[in-house]
Amino acid sequence: MSEFTNFEPMFQETYKLILDRIKSNQIYIMDEGPWRERLCWIKLMVNILAAMSHTAGVIERIAQGADLVQLSTDLSAVLILWQASLLYIQLCLNRKLLKKFIIHMGTKWRPDDQLRPHMIAVKHEYVLTFFRRIKVFYKAVTTYVILYLLTPFTYIAVKRFILKDGVALVTPFYIKMPFKFDDNFLLYSLVTFADSKILLDVGYLVCFDLLFMNAAMNHLRLMFVMLQDDLRHVHEEDVKQAEKTLKKLIPLHQDLLKLMTELSNAFGAVFFIHLAFFSGTMCFFGFAARIHCSPESIKNLFAGNIILVCIYTCCYYGQNLTDASIDIAQAAYESQWHLKSQEYKKCILFIILRSQKAQYIKSTSFTDVSLETFTKILNVTWSFLSLITKVYEA
């Protein structure tokens, strides 16, 4: 991450934490190299093989007569594994776009010596609060996934070796392997730990690619807030100096709008993949909890809620970024332009006209990253859940 060395430490640490989690999947965004690229595609093949094994397990259980309630947990795991495989391909293909975006935003990042004292306090609160939330979320996800995956193994080990009781060797999610492993504890342990490691990495990938997007939108919004502050205080300078300052702010505004476009290009397909799988995953988790309210289904519902929180925060930060870009017009209008020169008024008018049209982070040409999109996807999810429930009850 040599490119990070020239950026402010406060800017660096958020992305280092996120990229380290994504790096556990052998996806190196800032660190390039031919051997790392080969590791990336090898890891992708491992994930696809895991998805195929879990899919084969679901097909085998269907052949054995398992109903939808019994399959809901395994179906959710299959959907997440295939989702992670698509995300993996997209992130690998978009590494250069992601790296270009981070470096571009880092070069436009405003150090403390370029800000007014009150904006320095706002900046530190924005960045440090978000960083603390990511750290808490990372610890919570890691703890939850490890407990989810290894609690059954611990229970089986205690029953078998301490209580000397017979117990079936089952994995947290049903998996079909080309060899028999449920009659040999050593093989069972190897399969369980290998599958758990893959699922832990998948959990990091599914959560932290959205957190990556969240961090980018949160920081970009902060840069718009800094620009708003500059516009509100530019009138305090004398006429000629105010014109010079304003002419410097116009290209900065253009750069921020360009960064929004780059962010859409880098993350749009990633967000779309999440939306495409979100309804199915939440439906199966919610269906199991609604029809068969057992501790196992409640535990799965918590997993669904983690995905729900990631999608919601992404839409929330996307909406905030759009609102911040629109508020530039209001900040420019409040700069007492009526007391300035004609040239100053033209510059202000140019900024206001450019800011009046809402700029959204685009997932696709017809889908914005906004709270409205989150509302729509929840409606679709609820419709699917109601349909599945009615079909099952009938």
Automatic annotation (TrEMBL):
GO molecular function, one term: olfactory receptor activity
TM spans (from-to): 136-155, 266-289, 301-319
Record's keyword annotation contains Transmembrane helix: yes
Cell compartments where the protein resides: Cell membrane
UniProtKB keywords: Cell membrane, Membrane, Olfaction, Receptor, Sensory transduction, Transducer, Transmembrane, Transmembrane helix
GO BP term (any one): signal transduction
GO cellular component, one term: plasma membrane
Superkingdom in the source lineage: Eukaryota
Membrane topology: Multi-pass membrane protein
Sequence similarity: Belongs to the insect chemoreceptor superfamily. Heteromeric odorant receptor channel (TC 1.A.69) family.
UniProt-recorded name of the protein: Odorant receptor
Protein's organism: Cydia nigricana
Gene that produces this protein: OR
